[in-house]
Amino acid sequence: MGYVQEARENHVKKKVEEALRSKMKQKALKECDQYTSKYAQCAAGKTISVVWQCRKQAKELNDCLHQFTNDAVLEEMKKEYMLQENQKGSSRV
């Protein structure tokens, strides 16, 4: 499959992509809830010192979030969306 053809198949409207990104972020936050809690506990009552005192928790949170919010995940979500749309279209005919 050529690059242009693959790009066409995975192309979604801007609003759809924004919705998929939002869904991706929500899932990531849900999956990484334990790390979010650890970071929040560390950051409670701190101001500027949170940067160096909570560095470990921040890194763990960012690493977890990145697993669920990267380009590969978004592309997979786009493919799933396009498959669903194609199935809807073919069932209408």
TrEMBL record:
Q: Which InterPro entries match?
A: Cyt_c_biogenesis_Cmc1-like
Q: Where in the cell is it found?
A: Mitochondrion
Q: Which UniProt keywords apply?
A: Disulfide bond, Mitochondrion
Organism equals Hibiscus sabdariffa
Q: Does the keyword Mitochondrion apply?
A: yes
State the PANTHER family in the record: COX ASSEMBLY MITOCHONDRIAL PROTEIN, COX ASSEMBLY MITOCHONDRIAL PROTEIN HOMOLOG
Q: Which family does it belong to?
A: Belongs to the CMC family.
Q: Pfam families under this entry?
A: Cmc1 (PF08583)
What name is this protein filed under?
A: COX assembly mitochondrial protein
